[in-house]
């Protein structure tokens, strides 16, 4: 039904003052956000002064709980308030990141082997901003490696997986109290090689993130203890000051978990992406008709193909055991495919029930988490 000219004029006259009020309120919100940013910057300064962790989960949960209760009391959507505050808090961590305290008395030299790579550069920046003297050791620098590591407090290995063991094995003697650590996404073999190469403190680390993140607040770093743990507590504290969440595992536990978390997931995404290519799928039309959840799936698959092919091939090839895991996965895929081909609804539902039982209460939690992600994906759809 067409709206008459007089009705359009009347609605415009009625909406105008309301929109003026909204503009004024939005302006106040911007000013409040600026004021909050100043306070959080001061919070960051105090945290750095006392070497406190950038991320304190208990404080964040307490704040969100209080504001949700306040919202419910005055009739505002608690979900809306939490969404806004989570985004504001993410920004506040950025304002607290202006500089970092040095957690090792006297600072010292940090040598990053492979520091010119993307992940190496990320950690070179973090150590530099924390007051350490950072030196990068690349292939051309090996003739001077002995002199470079002579007075190092930390030698950090940040080279591709396939080169890690060789690089560790060719390290010159390190100072007795120097910490030798690596950032590789496999842990058992590198840790054993470091322990054999260096008699001093040894530590295995795996940052569960890529170099494209803006900061490492809330990012998980797996810690695999090697030797002389008391000598590298300063390094673990430094990660906490940067905002990381540390998860301690044995090297064997880590590698077993990574088969599922990394190798199998990347392989599944590789197969899906290659299948779409072989099917000559029209990505533009897939995106046009996609639900938010399918768009996210496509985004995660597309993200894989925006990365370094050699890196992901190394991850998928990093463990012999992953081959058996993928063979079992293929067997289960075939089993369910046969149920589908036979149009066995009861059989498919029985398999579904296995998954429901396995995930248990976490399924509901994941439903809520994914709902927030999907709403965000929907909001950003152009």
Blueprint of the fold:
Blueprint: H1 5-49, H2 57-74, H3 78-95, E1 109-113, H4 118-129, E2 133-137, H5 145-149, E3 152-157, H6 161-169, E4 179-182, H7 188-197, E5 202-207, E6 220-227, H8 233-241, E7 245-248, H9 251-278, H10 283-289, H11 292-304, H12 309-317, H13 321-341, H14 345-359, H15 361-379
Parallel strand pairs: 1-2, 1-3, 3-4, 4-5, 6-7
Antiparallel strand pairs: 5-6
Report on the architecture of this protein.
There is one protein chain. The protein has 382 residues and is of the alpha/beta class. 62% of the residues lie in helices and 10% in strands. It is built from 15 helices and seven strands. A seven-stranded mixed β-sheet has the order 2-1-3-4-5-6-7, sandwiched between helices. Helix 9 packs across helix 13 (321-341). It is globular. The two termini are 28 Å apart. The model has no long low-confidence stretch (mean pLDDT 92).
Compact summary:
The chain is α/β, with parallel strands linked by helices and 382 residues long. 62% of the residues lie in helices and 10% in strands. The protein has helices spanning 5-49, 57-74, 78-95, 118-129, 145-149, 161-169, 188-197, 233-241, 251-278, 283-289, 292-304, 309-317, 321-341, 345-359, 361-379; strands spanning 109-113, 133-137, 152-157, 179-182, 202-207, 220-227, 245-248.
